[in-house]
Structures
1.
Amino acid sequence: MEKRANAVTFKGSPLTLIGPQLKAGDQAPDFAVVNGSLEVVNIGKTPAKARMFSVVPSLDTPVCSEQTKRFDKEISALKDKVAVYTVSLDMPFAQKRFCTAENIASVQSLSDIHNGSFGKSYGVLIEGLPIPLLSRAIFVVDKGGKITYCEYVPEVAQHPNYDKAIEALKAVAG
């Protein structure tokens, strides 16, 4: 498995990411994650429409919480044109609790706890921490399964570029 040393920092400390660095134009890799009903979901089980995968280390942290709430609010107007997912290594039960408590209605949560395949396939699994975490990133995928926008946030504790991500999602939503 490919490793990318010093690919991101966390509070200034360099970290290694496991997996490839994807870019716009790449085919979206497959994965096996778990939804709130404990069903295994792969790329083929997501709808063939504009999709955003908002990757966060943990929903129980301020930036991750704000990221999920912001995308939930911003994409609510797009309704059935898009499917937006927050992906983390949080347990599905914790994700469900968070989404219920924060009234998250438009974003679905997916847990990579099943086998870490999302993190490895999308190059966001952080190596060397006391617990496994995913690095902050955004992937927009069109209805044909091609990545049209990709952002690996260089400092894990910072926010992604919300405006560019939403613009990219709207562009492929039609």
2.
Amino acid sequence: MARSHLTLAALATAAVDGFDVAGATSFGSGGGGDFESALVTGRDGRHWIIRIPTSERAESEQSADLVALRALSAGVRARLPFAVSTFAGQTPISGTRAIVYEFVYGSKVQTSALAAGDELAGSIGRATAAIHLLPTSFVADAGLPVLTAAEILRTTVTLMDRASATDLVPTALLGRWERAIEDPALWQFAPTVINGSLGADSFLAAGDEVTGVLGWHGLSVGDPARDLYWLLAGADGVSDTAFDAYTLARGSKDRQITQRAMLYSEFEIAKWLLHGMQERDTAIVDDAVEMLQRLADDVIDNLEQSLGHNTMPVMAISEVEAMLDRNERAF
């Protein structure tokens, strides 16, 4: 049975020395979620969130999020045009731990509410660019993952091979992915700091401006396209608005970032398929197979959704990796 907000408020006083609680209310989706949460108000009027994970996966995510928040120093945060929560304290409870964070103000962004030319879509693009412009050194100093372009390519190849081994991915779709992976132009990019798990519900907004970003458990140095792929699922023109604002803010010369974002978006379905296979859940597998077939029908022969760089000669994967390794040594 889920704990009441009053119980969670009492735990907050145990987690944070000297915390004087004035009130508390339930927070989040209620029972059945990944966390038991409450919004707690102090006597000074400040607001805080206390969360207790309800599964091993949620506990792992919370631990990774905590490492990332501690890595985001005051100096790093000062470079961001939005707020990031801070860790306030923790206390053990039922084999896990309750963690208290500073509350970040704003309303969660809904993908369905974004529209082409929307100022909020542009603000999301600029906020994402600000993350990618952060210095990579603080990520390495915190012991968080730092991947090269070659390592990212190899990880992508491994995912495709695992999906292919199920014999459930349409042949035409596998060919499309293989051509993208073997296209060297797609993989000539400089890895940046990335949030690693961005989606619409990662962003808090007030009006047309992003006020905060939640969920930093995927913080690393990696492919900036990983933080952008989710925008492609929005309404027509939304991704163009966000990508244009992103490019203008970052001054990016990564001309193939949209193609890689599209590839990652398609691979999310492959991940769903592999999850279903691992869990032996036929409903998930059937759903993923149907989605893959619809995707194949949508993108095959659609030049506007091409993943490749058509002017470059095709190279073998080993040749692409060797080229990337040479480029990295040159830096």
